[in-house]
Amino acid sequence: MRTWALAAMAAATMVFSAPEAQAGRDLDQIKQRGSLRCGVQGPSNPGFGVPDAQGRWQGFNVEICRAVAITIFNDPSKVEFVPVTTQSRFPALASGEVDILSNNSTWTLTRDSNVNRFNFPGIVFYDGQAIMVPRRLNVASAKQLDGATVCVQPGTTTELNITDYFRSNNIKFTPVVIEALDELRRAYDQGRCDVFTNDFAALAAQRTLLSKPQEHVILPERLSKEPLSPVVRQGDEELTNIVAWTVFALVDAEEFGITQANVDQIAGSATDPRVRRLLGVEGNMGESIGAANKDYARTIIKAFGNYGEIFERHLGKDTPLGLERGLNRIWTQGGLLYAPPAR
Fold first, then answer.
1. Where are the beta strands (DSSP E) in the chain?
2. What is the pLDDT of residue 23?
3. Residue 263 above 70 pLDDT?
4. Phi, psi at residue 176, to the nearest 5°?
């Protein structure tokens, strides 16, 4: 009986004793280089990622990358931003030119597969493809666009979705395919196509750059589901975990009411075990994912705020984009944002 008990205890130890987190291949290279190479959609993606007058990148996707840099290095400045296009982004990631994409890439089966070999650690924005047209066309629905010319980027889910939509509704269109987003927007603005299609948030961003933004309307239909996530290469689960739990920390912070202004006060007074674990007051959550410090989440929140604060600062109702939270509300407020338990 004693022998059986000892064997059972040994087996339990093997199952439940987690090994110390170690850096994977890509994470090792990032640490040796001393910076995270982040592929962002550029150079003109207002709200999500644009250089300011001093050349410093700003935006929602940019702050996601800087938050990941805090988790890895405890330093938000250790990021190199690399502009990529819809055509170049995945080759750039596959080749190692960038370590992570934070550029409104949609999580799909074929991208997250043994063929393309990419990981999508966590959804940061729920979107859907939309259609923008000039008000002068007096169009109220996408189903009225039979025979339209459509500006669209190649190599995107957008191109596939617009084809599916027109086909399923038995209407025809002529694509105007242009890779560079700036050139595509200019083509639409100059009247070279009747329709500009992209994810809704991307259209809202591009509309701010048109010569007369108020003369263009985004139609009510959503042609697809577009769950947008950072992207990393498969084969380095440690880096995948770091990106995922960086995103989840921002979501949890909003759910728990932790803000940039009150994070230190809450860290010093919280009794909720979930909050204490998140902020590194107790437990070893940071060590478990290989973060630079156990209080990595507290450092991120102090630098950028929670998910909602980042959203409102760059995309919300008081910005030129003027986006409502919609599906991007916390689950307790009727949205889809939900983080797994940090325990």
1. 36-41, 50-51, 57-58, 79-84, 100-106, 118-119, 125-127, 129-134, 148-152, 173-177, 195-199, 216-218, 226-233
2. 57
3. yes
4. -115, 100
